[in-house]
Amino acid sequence: MKMKPHLKTPVVLSLATVWFGTLAGAGIASPTVTRLTPPSELFATGNSAPVIARFLPGQRFDLQATVRPDSGKTISEFQFYVDDVPVKSPAGAAGASLVTSGLVAGLPAGTAVVSLRAFSTRRPGVHTLKVKAVQSDRQVVTAVGNFEVVVVDDRGCDRDRFGAKGGFAKNVILFLGDGMGAAHRTAARIMAKGYAQGKAKGRLAMDTFPFTGMVMTASLNSIITDSSPGMSNYVNGNKAANNQEGVFPDDTQDPFDNPRIEYLAEYLHRTQGKSLGIVTTADVFDATPAANAVHTSNRGNGTGIVDQFLDDRDLTGLTVLMGGGRKWFLPNASNSINPQPMTGSQRRSVNDYVLPDDIVKAWGAAKGKLDPERNLISDFQSEGFFYAPDNTALSSAGSARKLLGLFAFSNMNVAMDKINGRRGVSTVVQDYGFPDQPMLDEMTSAALKVLEKNPEGFVVTIEGASIDKQSHLMDSDRWMLETLEFDRAIQVAKDFAATHPGTLILVTADHECSGAAIIGASRLTQAALAAKAGQPQTELRDKVVGTYEAAGFPRYEIQADGYPSSTNPDYKMLIGYGANADRYETWVSQPLPTQDSQQPFVGTYPLNSYPANPSVRNSGIGFLVTGQVPGDQAVHTASDIPLSAYGTGASLFTGVMDNTDVFFKLVQAMGDDARGYFRR
Amino acid sequence: MPVGPLGLEPSEKLLGMKGRRVRMVGYLVHQEEPVAGLSYLTPYPVALGHEDESLADDLPPSTVFLHLSVGEMASSPRVLHSAGLIRLTGQLAVGPQLESDGRISSVRLLLDPESTTSLLGTERPSP
Prior knowledge:
The structure holds 2 protein chains of 2 kinds. By secondary structure, chain A is an alpha/beta fold. Chain A is about 25% helix and about 20% strand. In chain A, helix 11 links the parallel strand 17 (about 385-390) and strand 18. Chain A starts with 17 loop residues before the first strand and ends in a 10-residue tail after the last helix. Chain B has 3 helices and 9 strands; from the N terminus they run E-E-H-E-E-E-E-E-H-E-E-H.
């Protein structure tokens, strides 16, 4: 029976369900197992391949099942078996639970979610996973699935460089260009380096990495992923459902109690004492940064996510956390305080966390508390973190051993607006309230200065977050500058690797966004193009877009700060979108991050100018490009992602690979083996 | 709205205008998925809300939450986007408050009926 997942948290019926025992009556009812975790094709369809869930030797993960009893009955006992051997949580009975309340709607009364937390095994190969549940009338149900423990051998050993004993990566720098596909990289190169007679006049830093692979990015429940599984798949070796990070789906309402998979950072901190760094230009609670350290089925639970960054630092080794998101770290005083202080806090109990005891006992995780009044900045500082609210403070963080940087209330401003602010030609960052935001390369440099202090090494994820955000908005020039900012940070890491042997750098993306494509170049000068604003498609498209040889080689003048002096040069590069929403295209950069036509001051709302089309950007001055998708923003695509690798162990990252394969290759590069010890 | 290392630093002028009837000029935030009865005014154009964004948004700290006047709130219409600068009048409210979109506002404008009507127009189709 083939089941097509159609729910956000797929629930499937097991073909392998078996019942035996006495029938209570003439009916053929029996309890059923409707979910078995980790997920497997064996459970879902009866096919033993492909194996969905894979783990390192000793990597921790939760076992869980949802069991539906017969009407009027309850589930009284359960046991998990691996290869027919009963297994226990490392916390014993305290690490197991049978939960019948707080479940999702629509389940029959008495349904039980049974869990065994923080299981692990070192034996390599494919293993059968079985759950046996006993109903109150002693009827028994079992279900079978499978998972694999991946052997990590010593092929990560860079023998050519380090001799017979080999060398392994001590530090991993993972650059995640959110939404960055091949076209984004190519466009950034054209802008930054230019071409001459078909030859690129220079290379982006990421272009110079000697090893290249292609990454398949599907999530657990779709060919089109989002940033939650897009990140966590890389760093725990397993698929996650969209909107979920570091967990498998379950049937409870609590977003923080889902079955966990140990993250790379947690595994390495536990086994090697490595540190974790998270650097992003987004709000730090956002999916990509969070999916390196926090386990949740709801990427939107900001308060609980940021709290766990600090509360579980002993599990993850978190040492550096930088980005936007200050709004989650500010106290939100209780209503009993009058007058209410106005901090701008977005902390709320409804998205905070309190973990069930089985996770606390088995994983050693913090219990948590519903505490919107918490002053998280102060708590970070109490734990020895240097707090930098702006670039000036960041510049003075040199001797810090732990670093917290919160440079905006939510997302940081995009590179174009930060650079224009520094050049004095824009006031967006001032209007935003954060005039002194660092660039990503400055953040990277500061992070590495702190992380290198750990003699055991570190893993850091550095995200260029707004490549994706500006691609959603189909703002071509802004995502190109985001990609340039991202590449400048990559150069900082490459320079670091040159002086820190045993460093591995990967550049990749969680998914492609918008179906961006370089379609050609403008046939017109900037002035002539600007003069066409408001003209119909026959003018603004047909007489502007130069395709094939008419595109030539667009030239952008790059200033000393590394960014173009203008994104509107004569004969500029033109971008089309395969996953676009409706938009009005002018081809001209707008001075503000969201391109809204700036009409003169109006006394009342102009009803007759209300657009017939949902997208209003450039309406009246651009020509309509009808979208492939509904709504106002472009969407993610399923295109494979180019991956670039540099440094120790980089040669492992070639060929077409799944994003979950990257996790195992990373650990392989670091030298783990089935016996669980690391060669230094 | 000045922002310091430890959060908002509202000016004495803003705090002194609490509860008073004011006139404000700004841009209506473009919402991908409008929330009934609620909109936002910002000093420059902002687009808000796609499924990949969640609460990691681009709203500046100075965002003013717009509440439609009571009668209109009862019928929960959605304020749809309009282009360009807009002038609105209403009563200024200052202080943290939980909103229907799940955010906590710091400054709100409780719109006059005239401003509410001008935002809503007549016979708007449902999105």
